[in-house]
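User: My collaborator sent over this chain with a note saying "see what the structure looks like." That's all I know about it. Can you take a look?
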Amino acid sequence: MRNEFQIMSFTQFREKLQQEPNLHFKNKFYTVLLFNDASGSIVIDDLQFDVQPQKFFFINYNQVYHFTDSQDMEGNVLMFTKSFYNYVYTGNKKIKSDSALNDVAPFIIASDENLTDLTQTFEELRNEYSKSKLLRKEIICLLLKVFVLKYIRNSNKKHRISKFIDHKKQIVEDFSNLVNQHYKELKTTSQYAQKLNFSPNYLNALIKESLDISAGQFIKNRVILEAERLLLHTSLSVTEISYELGFDDNSHFGKYFKSATKYSPKQYRLLKLGKKF
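Assistant: Without extra context I'll predict from the sequence alone. Here is the result:
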């Protein structure tokens, strides 16, 4: 369960972070930082927040963060995956990770009253985590949902990131996930726009605004990336690769690939493998 859910002291957490090659970390979990004593600041994506006692932070999936001028930080860290959070499934939108956790405030400052409320649930979580008893995973999952709901309940709306911005970020994430799933059979912006229930123009404008490339170029980049992998790391023929990637014929694939790399698939393979063509 350690790969899905962990509780550790902030000292242990800092020791793990210091093993990384740089001090900017991309989050691979939902992470909650519960500071008992702290100073300095934390930068999450491009937003900087002061760190102080009784201030708790929620770091979402794939957010990048680092600490600056941090001193004497004490507290606890709670980390969990999407799959673990949904281990005990519920269809309630206020509880599901793909809806409730998209709009969580980046931090809350706990008053004496809600500090007691949150820490009591956290201590229950930590106590259950330290045991090896029947239904341990289920109980931890349910307590975790309670903790997250209390965090949301105690968050102040003025600390929330704009729902509109969060909504746009979610669309970009959904688009990226769809491309990763369907790039072999779907290669146009309109096909993905239909799946997301948006117009192609709106989707393209949103991706351009967020990623600085068009939606069509994003799709093409993913197809070309896979083509390059297959050309360099498999013995499949160019024809086999073209069918693997969903092209009707070898000629179409060749033109598609050359428009992006300036080389035919065969030339690209020979060039990267250090052979003459």
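A starting point for your reply to your collaborator: Confidence is low (pLDDT under 50) at residues 157-162.
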